[in-house]
């Protein structure tokens, strides 16, 4: 059954802080948290934060000329929340109306093979609730299998950071796999917009966005699904 009204959204962040062998720093991408959070806050949707390892995850893209980034980055409550994330393997999925996997390059290293990611995603989806991800966040979906043994993404329309976008940032040989291609290998029907333009795909209760430019629209699609779920209850 869909989650009752009032349950929060769980925002999951990567705990991986380096881009492979380059040693370059990475982490979760700030705008892929702040822009969705602005949508959730405006809609009165509560959120809680988790990360793979818990505690304070590494952050990338701290671009404070972005007004939404600056507003949250300078907010003591937000900073405290992301300094003290829950450890995902200790999370009870039944508490949440949806899970949202934020991107940032770190996600392609620690999301795909995390048993906690796979469990939480499967449990939330099979409970009739919403699974969402943006940019590199769909790395969380790569290895998720449902209880019947099929990949969650098999036969479903999805969007994610494209192979061309990965080449554009010259990291195609650094990341452990190309996300869009790998989702397609799992049976997903990948849909892409031109590089660096907003693209969100909603397939039932699965919501995915292509890149940082898609962060707001991904959250808006989640908001709309949550409102429909609330109205149905």
Any overview of this molecule?
- Strands 5-3-1-6-7-11-10 form a seven-stranded mixed β-sheet. It has a two-stranded parallel sheet with strand order 2-4. Strands 8-9 form a two-stranded parallel sheet.
- The protein has one domain (9-232): 3-Layer(aba) Sandwich (Rossmann fold).
- The chain is of the alpha/beta class and 233 residues long.
- It has helices at residues 31-43, 67-73, 76-83, 107-110, 115-126, 163-168, 179-185, 215-232; strands at residues 9-13, 28-29, 47-51, 59-60, 86-87, 98-101, 130-134, 157-158, 189-190, 200-203, 206-209.
- It starts with 8 loop residues before the first strand and ends with a helix.
- It contains eight helices and eleven strands.
- It is 32% helix and 16% strand.
- The model has no long low-confidence stretch (mean pLDDT 97).
- The protein is globular.
